[in-house]
């Protein structure tokens, strides 16, 4: 689990491994729980605020807040790696929290739906910077041998917080209304996350220097354009991971916006909708404690492909049934499948990236992954307005199944070497 390495290029006290860095690692786990909680405040109540308080009848318009969130978060992810390498991880983390501070206040005070859309654009920056930095810093701390475990613990904290907060906001809304009481949780998360990031977090660039010192040198530096193309299309493992990440968050974006409207159309109460919206991310979060380390032992490919197929089964079951008990089973399946996929994808991208440009490669992967929020919400909204909510859910289920097949066919198990990747990005002259 731990890896102790010494190097003249890093401070003598810097070592790689979870055991050697557990205080900072645990702090980053806590901070990412607050990051996840910021999204959790919206999972149950915000779509209902649009439909019930602002009387928006178009499903596409209701889910527009997810589109703004997804597009902005994807772009924030894309620059987060560049900023992390240039400014340091801690500064980008603090910037993410600074941008996120106004979000709950804007939702509480929103006189129109445009305010909610604007708040979610800021939330996208908060998530793109803060969540990216917590996962990158954990990977920096533990070194190459425990990446799956590091990512699993990070995503466990974030998505368990999403689930718990979704349940709490549903319960609070059933007692006190959709606004403002449920959103007060977001105020607490933002203040605590911002304060801890400023006061206690330490940067991890020395850990990157230490790992880089023991890694094979690249034949030539790789530009961001080359990293973008490599991560997006040119490397088969990175391409397989990027498309699976996009489709994974595409179905998550659909479920975020469509599920509350779908469930309420069958007369389900806000409290019971909160339960369903909590089970999916809670199962997802908790199981990543196991699936992250399992991807270190079993490999990434099998967990990713099978996880996409389990998600598809959960979505098909949701669309085909009309009772709470079946929807609960479907939510568990969604959580199990996503837990298999999420940490394995980030670890697979980390495997195929040289330490000197790993943060930038992860930022490209996260760009494609979180663009899925916008694509999923928008496409599901259009399908729902044209053919109904069940058709929207079923269509996304089919796409999720196909994505798992792409991984099964294209991804190769095993870690790519930095030399191979450098040659792909900088082919020798003919």
Description of the structure:
The chain has helices at residues 22-43, 45-53, 59-62, 64-87, 89-100, 103-109, 113-142, 147-176, 184-199, 205-213, 224-234, 236-264, 270-298, 301-320, 324-351, 358-387, 389-410, 418-425; strands at 2-3, 16-17. Helix content is 79%, strand content 1%. The chain has a two-stranded antiparallel sheet. The protein is globular and about 60 Å long. The termini are far apart. The chain has 430 residues and is mostly helical. It is built from 18 helices and two strands. α1 (22-43) runs antiparallel to α7 (113-142), α4 runs antiparallel to α16 (358-387) and α8 (147-176) runs antiparallel to α15.
What shape does the CA trace take?
Answer: globular
Q: Sheet with the most strands? A: 2 strands, antiparallel
What amount of the residues lies in strands?
under 5%
Please compute the radius of gyration using only Cα atoms: 21 Å
Give a short synopsis of this structure.
The chain has 18 helices and 2 strands. It has helices at residues 22-43, 45-53, 59-62, 64-87, 89-100, 103-109, 113-142, 147-176, 184-199, 205-213, 224-234, 236-264, 270-298, 301-320, 324-351, 358-387, 389-410, 418-425, and strands at residues 2-3, 16-17. The longest helix has 30 residues, at 113-142.
Layout of secondary structure:
Blueprint: E1 2-3, E2 16-17, H1 22-43, H2 45-53, H3 59-62, H4 64-87, H5 89-100, H6 103-109, H7 113-142, H8 147-176, H9 184-199, H10 205-213, H11 224-234, H12 236-264, H13 270-298, H14 301-320, H15 324-351, H16 358-387, H17 389-410, H18 418-425
Antiparallel strand pairs: 1-2
Helix pairs in contact: 1-7, 1-8, 1-9, 2-12, 4-5, 4-7, 4-16, 5-7, 5-9, 6-7, 6-9, 7-8, 8-13, 8-15, 11-12, 11-16, 12-15, 12-16, 12-17, 13-15, 14-15, 14-17, 16-17
């Amino acid at each position: 689990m731990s890896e102790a390495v010494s190097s003249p290029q890093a401070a003598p006290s810097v070592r790689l491994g979870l055991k050697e860095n557990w205080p900072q690692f645990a702090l980053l786990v806590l901070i990412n729980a607050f990051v996840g909680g910021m999204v959790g405040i919206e999972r149950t109540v915000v779509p209902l605020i649009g439909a019930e308080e602002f009387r928006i009848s178009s499903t596409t318009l209701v889910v527009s807040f997810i589109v703004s969130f997804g597009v902005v978060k994807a772009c924030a992810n894309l620059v987060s790696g560049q900023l992390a390498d240039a400014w340091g991880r801690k500064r980008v983390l603090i910037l993410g929290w600074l941008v996120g501070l106004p979000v709950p206040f804007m939702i509480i005070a929103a006189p129109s739906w445009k305010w909610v859309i604007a708040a979610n654009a800021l939330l996208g920056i908060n998530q793109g910077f803060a969540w990216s930095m917590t996962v990158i810093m954990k990977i920096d701390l533990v070194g190459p041998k425990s990446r799956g475990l590091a990512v699993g613990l990070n995503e466990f904290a974030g998505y368990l917080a999403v689930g718990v907060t979704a349940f709490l906001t549903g319960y609070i809304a059933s007692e006190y209304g959709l606004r403002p009481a449920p959103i007060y949780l977001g105020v607490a998360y933002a203040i605590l996350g911002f304060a801890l990031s400023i006061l206690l977090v330490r940067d991890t660039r020395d850990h990157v220097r230490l790992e880089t010192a023991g890694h094979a040198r690249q034949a030539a530096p790789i530009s961001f354009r080359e990293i973008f193309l490599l991560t997006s299309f040119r490397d088969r493992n990175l391409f397989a991971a990027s498309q699976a990440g996009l489709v994974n968050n595409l179905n998550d974006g659909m479920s975020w916006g469509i599920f509350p409207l779908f469930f309420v159309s069958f007369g389900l109460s806000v409290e019971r909708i909160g339960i369903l919206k909590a089970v999916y991310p809670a199962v997802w979060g908790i199981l990543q404690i196991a699936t992250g380390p399992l991807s270190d032992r079993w490999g990434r490919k099998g967990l990713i492909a099978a996880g996409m197929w389990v998600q598809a089964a959960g979505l098909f079951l949701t669309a085909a049934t009309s009772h709470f008990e079946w929807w609960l089973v479907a939510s568990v399946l969604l959580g199990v499948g996503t837990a298999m996929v999420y940490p394995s994808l980030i670890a697979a991208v980390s495997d195929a990236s040289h330490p000197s440009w790993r943060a930038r490669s992860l930022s490209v992967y996260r760009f494609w992954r979180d663009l899925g929020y916008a694509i999923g919400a928008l496409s599901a909204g259009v399908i729902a307005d044209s053919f109904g909510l069940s058709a929207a859910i079923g269509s996304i289920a089919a796409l999720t199944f196909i994505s798992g097949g792409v991984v099964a066919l294209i991804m190769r198990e095993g870690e790519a070497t930095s030399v191979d990747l450098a040659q792909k990005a900088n082919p020798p002259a003919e």
